[in-house]
Specification:
This protein is about 25% helix and about 30% strand. The protein is an alpha+beta fold and about 325 residues long. The strands form six sheets. It has a five-stranded antiparallel sheet with strand order 6-7-12-10-11, with no helix packed on it. A four-stranded mixed sheet has the order 1-2-5-3, with no helix packed on it. A hairpin with a 2-residue loop joins β17 and β18. The chain binds uridine-diphosphate-2(N-acetylglucosaminyl) butyric acid (EPU). Uridine-diphosphate-2(N-acetylglucosaminyl) butyric acid binds next to β13 and α7.
Length: about 325
């Protein structure tokens, strides 16, 4: 159990924000969690970082930051159609996608190249190109800080929603995700419903679908419009796509006949936040080193040494202008610390 003091978190968040943590501990053995929980010499305030790809650090972090580096992928069981794979939360998500491709296991190929760790996948129910993590998550094992024991949550008890789960709600700050069990498919059910995938497959001259071909198409699309956090600091989509009523939508359509949308229910419809932000003129706009990405307005980037506060302030300005122009209040997708 090695504790470091006053450590910069710059290498541990994909925005590349330079703030310090009062204490930092790298966790590579889940068994230590009990000790971390009860050791009175450690700060009571605890924060968990996986890949740091969905967090905006706006100030120095008080207390103890636990860096989740739990590693391991094991096959739990299988039947004719499925394989249950238990994955430690500190594994890199994209490496798990590679593992699935190499072992011909389907279900997460559309989620290729999403930055971050496996532990973050259930927390915000990561999703892209018509697929969400909840479709393959069988269960999530966690250490519960108050109960002081490991608890396994079934898929149903995770209460997954769009970029949402029980871990962002009732269990927020209450658990440490240690492993996730996925139920992957031996018999692929390819999902190419998201228009861009089909176009990309054609461009790649793919004639017979495969898990790898879909992952390659997704990788090509993502690389063409989303900035690589290794080169330009960012946390993917900064805001969620908002859901509004059809009544509101029809009103907007009178002024914006080309507004894109995805039906959600009989009364609700989702509109892309990237489109709303672009319409407000934000694409490519910079405020110092903080800026709206020039290819995808839903991404706010750190083009140099922006502070978390500067990125936050830019996001506030964006929120205000979208609210004023469309009457829609955007919700941040990133977790703000
Ligand atoms: N659009 C614009 N301008 C922009 C960006 C988008 O007009 O600057 C329009 C596009 O033309 C399209 C629509 O908005 O009509 C949707 O755009 P896109 O397919 O790029 O997807 P998105 O809704 O902006 C969501 C996810 C992404 C995910 C993609 C693909 C959210 C918050 N974001 O973005 O997830 O990769 O779909 O499935 O749901 C993430 O969560 O970090 C993330 C990158």
């Amino acid at each position: 159990m090695q504790l470091q003091q006053n450590i910069s978190l710059k290498p541990y968040n994909t925005f590349g924000i330079d703030v310090s943590a009062e204490y930092l501990m790298v966790l590579n053995d889940a068994a230590i969690l009990q000790q971390v929980n009860t050791d009175k010499s450690l700060p009571a305030e605890k924060h968990i970082l996986g890949g740091g790809s969905n967090v905006l650090l706006t100030k120095a972090v008080k207390g103890l930051v636990l860096l989740n580096k739990l590693k391991g992928i094991t096959i739990e069981r299988e039947d004719e159609e499925h394989v249950w794979v238990k994955v430690s939360a500190g594994e890199i998500w994209h490496e798990l996608v590679h593992y699935a491709i190499d072992n011909n296991l389907a279900g997460i190929e559309n989620l290729a190249l999403i930055p971050g760790t496996v532990g973050a996948a259930p927390i915000q129910n990561i999703g892209a190109y018509g697929v969400e993590a909840k479709e393959t998550i069988d269960s999530v094992r966690c250490w519960h800080w108050e109960e002081q024991e490991f608890i396994t949550y079934s898929n149903a008890s995770c209460r997954f929603g769009y970029r949402d789960s029980i871990f962002k709600q009732e269990l927020k700050n209450k658990v440490f995700v240690t492993d996730v069990t996925f139920r992957l498919n031996k018999k692929p059910a390819y999902n190419i419903s998201y228009g861009a995938i089909e176009q990309e497959l054609q461009k790649m001259n793919v004639t017979s679908l495969s898990i790898k071909a879909i992952a390659d198409a997704v990788i090509a699309i993502r690389s063409s419009k989303l900035p690589d956090p290794k080169q330009t600091g960012n946390a993917g989509s900064f805001f969620k796509n908002p859901t509004i009523t059809y009544e509101h939508f029809e009103l907007l359509q009178t002024n914006y006949p080309n507004i894109p949308s995805y039906p959600v229910s009989d009364i609700m419809i989702k509109v892309p936040a990237g489109w709303l932000i672009e319409q407000c003129g934000w694409k490519g706009v910079k405020r110092g080193d903080a800026g709206v990405h020039e290819k995808q307005a839903l991404v706010i980037a750190n083009y140099g040494n922006a502070s978390g506060k500067e990125i936050w302030e830019l996001s506030e300005e964006i929120l205000e202008s979208v609210k004023e122009r469309f009457g829609i209040i955007l919700e941040r997708e990133v977790q703000v610390w």
